[in-house]
Amino acid sequence: MKKQHKFLKTNSRPGVVAVCLAFIMSVGAVQAETVSYILEDVFLADGSQMTGAFDWTYTDGDFEGGSGVFTALEIPWRPTGTAPPLEQAGMVLTIENKQIEISLNGNFHDYGLDIILKFAPPLSANQSSLIDLTASFYECCGNGFKDQPFSSGAITPVVPGDLSGDGVVNAADLVIAERIILAHITPTTLQAHALDVAPVVNGVSQPDDMLGAGDFLLLTRKVPGLVSFWFNKKHFGFLNHPTHKHSQSAN
């Protein structure tokens, strides 16, 4: 006698099947989070500045296992007429939890590049990591012609509207924002980036390189939770400017 296999009919107990499917889907869906960082006050020994920004994307509960991607980068002594570093053919960019490596093989002009930025503590979502000035180095242009150490710098997370650097947006940030808009104080590099939030389009901040009343008004709505937004990840093209311009409305 041929043995018959029994199968569960999906229409016999739809509630059980639905619960099982929902459970499987919830287990399979992993929540990804992204933190944006800037290279803050990264200077070489001769006073040249290296600027940049990157995103660190990780799964919930595994921050150290995340991965980083540069969204902006400007390196001193880039040969005239060459493409920006993010578009330069052969440029290798590696972002890890404790260091950043940037390299480019030399060509017939001998513009090779080898940069190591080591920092401590490791990347964090709410605090800066200082560059290890002893372990980090900058080698450029062959034959040690531009080789030199770094003199300062940090890898700093940027939270839209967080001008005090405590990881949250509250009334204290409004006080700082007002003083910046009225030109009573000069913003730091981090503050200039965090304050430039307007305009916001479909919940995404589209910074315009101007600090003005629009930025301040958005923060007055963000503090009580009336509006929520995040940075456009492809922005940060303004990073070469140490401070932003003030809009006419702020004068």
H/E order of the elements?
Answer: HEEEEEEEEEHHEEEHEE
Our measurement of the CA-to-CA distance between the termini, rounded to an integer number of angstroms, reads 94 Å
Low-confidence stretches: 5-10, 233-244
Whole-number average pLDDT?
80
Number of extended strands? 14
Oligomer: single chain
**Portion in strands:** 25-35%
Radius of gyration: 24 Å
Helix content: 10-25%
Descriptive terms for the model:
nine-stranded antiparallel sheet; alpha+beta; 251 residues; globular; 4 helices; 14 strands; three-stranded mixed sheet
Task: Outline the structure in words.
- The chain is globular, with a radius of gyration of 24 Å.
- The strands form three sheets. Strands 1, 2, 3, 4, 5, 6, 7, 8 and 9 form a nine-stranded antiparallel β-sheet that branches. Strands 10-11-13 form a three-stranded mixed β-sheet, with no helix packed on it. Strands 12-14 form a two-stranded parallel sheet.
- Helix 2 runs antiparallel to helix 4.
- It has four helices and 14 strands.
- With 251 residues, it is of the alpha+beta class.
- The chain starts with 13 loop residues before the first helix and ends in a 5-residue tail after the last strand.
- About 7% of the residues have low confidence.
- It is 17% helix and 32% strand.
- It has two domains: 126 residues; 80 residues, no CATH class.
Summarize the structure.
The protein is α+β, with helices and mostly antiparallel strands. Helix content is 17%, strand content 32%. The strands form three sheets. Strands 1, 2, 3, 4, 5, 6, 7, 8 and 9 form a nine-stranded antiparallel β-sheet that branches.
